[in-house]
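Dear Dr. H.,

I hope your travels went smoothly. While you were away I took the liberty of generating a structure for the chain from your last submission, since the lab meeting agenda had it listed for discussion. I wanted you to have the full record in hand beforehand rather than looking at slides cold. The sequence, exactly as received, is reproduced here:
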Amino acid sequence: MLRRVFKAFHYRDFRLQWIGACTSSIGTWMQRMAQSWLVLELSKSPSMLGLDAFLGELPIVLFSLYGGVIADRVDRRPLLLLLASGLLGGAVRGSCEEGPGQTEWKTTTSPHFLVYHEAPFAPPGVVLGLEKLYGRLRLDLSMFAPWMEKEKVKVYIYRSRNTYLNPKEFNPPSWSDGIAFLDRKIIVSFEQKGRRKLTEILAHEMTHLLFESYWEEARREPQPGRQARRDGGGLARRI
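The corresponding predicted structure, in token form, is as follows:
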């Protein structure tokens, strides 16, 4: 029975055709899986994933009849070689493209924050959570950071860790989930699986801004009494 099943493989032309078709199918399904995964990872939307699959099949629906007419009227071998070379070139070009460059940001504004998000919309509840956080920190920590009353904090939220680690922009440490820049009043992070996790990261980086700004001011303008104690302590050690 098995000999009858595999009898066709005794013919060289059939073996070549089968190996080529099998290799092509493996590559096609790898590309489809990777593309679908990428669309879902970037959009976080099942609707966009379905739209991508629909648009991928749309050319077959629209042009299959015309393609059949052309295939009947021209030599099919050069046509197949031309189309296969085009598909191969497109796949190679896509895999060899450089990493991400400058991100196209969308902006959401609140009374005390400018939230820049890579996704079309800010993560649900994040802006409101930032304002609640600001209200709590203002009561307890505003003395450490007078700029809180005048300046808005800029918050950049990437879609994923991969785009967050883009070295052409903020270049954060690879082990980090967020980073803060005191001189520019900027907090940078990326979307997490849970909203609470992202809020905790932003709160952590916000306290970094507040306390670092306090110590920065303390270093610039030391109090006379504190300076005298330093000088006295240094003198005592020297003696």
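Two observations you may find useful: The helical segments are 2-5, 12-43, 46-73, 76-96, 126-141, 161-164, 195-220, 224-238. DSSP finds eight helices and five strands in the chain.

With kind regards,
E. W.
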